[in-house]
Amino acid sequence: MVPGLFRIWTLSVVMVALAFGGLVQDVSNCEAGQSMHCQQQQQPQQQQDGEDYSSLLVLPASTQASRPGRHRLADIKSGTSQQGNSVKVYVMMSLTMVSLNGTLNDPEALRRNLTKIRETGATGVMSDVWWGITEPEPQKYNFAAYRQFFSICREVGLEVQIVTSFHQCCDEGSDCYIPVPAFVRKEPGIWYKNALGDETRAYISLFADDVKVGDRTPRQMYEDWVQAFQLEFQSDIGTLIVEVMLGMGTDGELKYPSYENPAGKWQYPGIGMFQAFDQHALESLKAAASTAGEEAWGLPPSAEVTGYYNSFPNETTFFRDDGGYQTSHGKFFLNWYSQALIHHGANMLTMARKTLGSKVRISGKIAGVHWWYKTKSHAAELTAGFYNTNGVNAYANIATAFAAASNAIVDFTCLEMTDASQNPAYECGPQELVQQVTWFCLSFLVFICCCCWFCCRLLLFVFLVFFILHVLLLFIWLFYFVVVCCCSFI
């Protein structure tokens, strides 16, 4: 009992010290969902005072968005500053800041806008660095536009946070359409596929991570790209470039494209569909079933069982209460599906830390799938890869993986949402979801991103609650110690 309480006390002191010392990372990626990005890019840019603000992303104030969980403060990123109670602000740059041919759009207008940003007191900016732009041919990298952008940021005194965007931006035909490199996009058989045979080429299937595409695997491609970035900007990493967020799925988030494949079929609050039907996923599942001695479990459940993109949980035999997700077969499948996602994320984060070193913050973004959270099955989370039912805690498992990957930061969405703002018929639980994620990130001493001033203070409040509870535990321990000592003398 004594050692356990001592460890808890020590952990509490460390956490409070971090909170008050300003070391809790600022850190929230408030990058908007790709659908919102695309909608904004297609709208005419407004001008004020004769200035062109097309190099910035400014989203209209909104309480609803086309993708739940992503209607957030999309143009700023905030966190604890070292100056009293102020917060750092990072402005999200436009998706079309760099053209598809690798040139910086209107550098002079960009410089003027960045200067205005700095004059407002902002700390820095955040920008996607697109794989599809920077590697037009295998292992031939072009970071010239980003070098120019970083130079302007340095001159005006802004820090930079970047996203390694290994995913596609928006859909074909959009003004902000940025596909993955052509030499990858043309390859068949390496893309996520659902039970209907639909596939998306927005991000390579994680089940193909170790499959040769030409003379390299996707995992090697990601590592080669990060190494090239490190070589190009080694003097800036840790100084000008203060954070690198690893893109680990569609929209840059660690998730399966359960509500994005194919584009346009899913509508909120549909449960989405499992993405476990590409040839490499099927091979992986078959091997796992064989290892478990259950050959019959070598196929994923069909759409007739799990439903379709816009199904509700109670309309399916798999996700309804006491449905297939609670059977031995269902549990086996869900564990395999979620562990594959976590393994992919852990590999990506570990690779980034190994390549970039300890001078820069490493982070990864997790989707906030809050709809149907209050149902027993957590159906929408399950199809996205978050196994959060049957006594399994998806976010504790993810926090463990992030902690093991050199203490990578968890960037979590929907932090500013409330249950009351959602339709009660959809059993949404954004507040409970945030509490769950926050609790287990703190348990593993993993920093968590927050999207606004309120969320930063909310995390500090949680730290204080931890501290007060453990002070009480310390007094209980001291009382216990005194009583034991007195009894021993008697």
TrEMBL record:
> Which reactions does this protein catalyse?
Hydrolysis of (1->4)-alpha-D-glucosidic linkages in polysaccharides so as to remove successive maltose units from the non-reducing ends of the chains
Extract one GO molecular function annotation from the record: beta-amylase activity
Q: Where are the transmembrane segments?
A: 437-456, 461-483
Keyword list (alphabetical) reads:
Carbohydrate metabolism, Glycosidase, Hydrolase, Membrane, Polysaccharide degradation, Signal, Transmembrane, Transmembrane helix
Q: Name one GO biological process term.
A: polysaccharide catabolic process
At the top level, the lineage of the source is: Eukaryota
As recorded in UniProt, its EC number(s) are 3.2.1.2
The signal sequence is: 1-19
The Swiss-Prot or TrEMBL record describes its family as follows:
Belongs to the glycosyl hydrolase 14 family.
Quote the protein name from its UniProt record.
Answer: Beta-amylase
- UniProt source species: Polarella glacialis
